[in-house]
Specification:
The structure holds 2 protein chains of 2 kinds. Chain A contains no helices and 11 strands. Chain A is an all-beta fold. In chain A, strands 2, 4, 5, 9, 10 and 11 form a 6-stranded mixed sheet that branches. A 5-stranded antiparallel sheet of chain A has the order 1-3-8-7-6, with no helix packed on it. Chain B has one domain: Sandwich (Immunoglobulin-like). Chain B has no helices and 11 strands. In chain B, a hairpin with an 8-residue loop joins strand 9 and strand 10. Classes of the chains: A mainly beta, B mainly beta. Chains A and B meet through strand 5, strand 9 and strand 10 of A and strand 5 and strand 10 of B.
């Protein structure tokens, strides 16, 4: 059974600081996704990581994937208040011809001015 | 934003009553998904569809049924709602293959009293 664990689950930080969110998964997978969710809103796709060593960057967010370690990181550089949200990672699982994404519990990020 | 709408957006119902949630897309994507989101659980897949009249169960399908009679519509039915089904329900779409990024609808908040 594929399990996806995120840590921390809650993070409060100051503007201007750097921090990293971690996403570990328990079995081999082809793809890893990062999403953002603002309070009371839907989920917005941020990144899809397709292979070992993949790195993608958008503004102050950078995501990377190490398939050997079964680990993805979402790094926040010089955080700003607008990045306050809950961040989810999700991993592909294909089992017995069934496909689904398995989701982490989410990391709630609060960035204080 | 992907053209996905959900209806109703909010619903309060009583235990034992049937409830149907609708997801409508204008993107002509093949794959459609129903998730529920609960605190501490991330998203969990209820059912998904890989074409008209082609559906399959997800991780938490008990107590739910789905139907897809047209490409653009995917219905989720709670045959006899229970308080444990109080949740936020999200529809998602992807295509042309199942391993494409999923795009989410605005969500439906369901309260079962």
């Amino acid at each position: 059974e594929l399990k996806v664990e995120q840590n921390p689950l809650f993070l409060s930080m100051q503007e201007g600081k750097n921090y990293t969110i971690y996403c570990n998964y328990s079995t081999t997978s082809d793809r890893l996704y990062w999403y953002r969710q603002d309070p009371g809103k839907s989920l917005e796709s941020l990144f899809v990581l397709l292979s070992n060593g993949a790195v993608k960057q958008e503004g102050r967010l950078m995501a990377s994937l190490d398939t050997k370690a079964r680990l993805s990181t979402l790094h926040i550089t010089a955080a700003v208040h607008d990045l306050s949200a809950t961040y989810f990672c999700a991993v592909d699982m294909i089992e017995d011809s069934n496909y689904q994404l398995i989701w982490g519990a989410g990391t709630k990020l609060i960035i204080k001015p | 934003d992907a053209g996905i709408t959900q209806s109703p957006r909010h619903k309060v119902t009583e235990t034992g009553t049937p409830v149907t949630l609708r997801c409508h897309q204008t993107e002509n994507h093949r794959y459609m998904y129903w998730y529920r989101q609960d605190p501490g659980h991330g998203l969990r897949l209820i059912h998904y569809s890989y074409g008209v009249k082609d559906t399959d169960k997800g991780e938490v399908s008990d107590g739910y049924s789905v139907s897809r009679s047209k490409t653009e519509d995917f219905l989720l039915t709670l045959e006899s709602a229970t308080s444990s089904q109080t949740s936020v329900y999200f529809c998602a779409i992807s295509g042309p293959s199942f391993q494409e990024t999923q795009y989410f609808g605005p969500g439906t908040r369901l309260l079962v009293l």
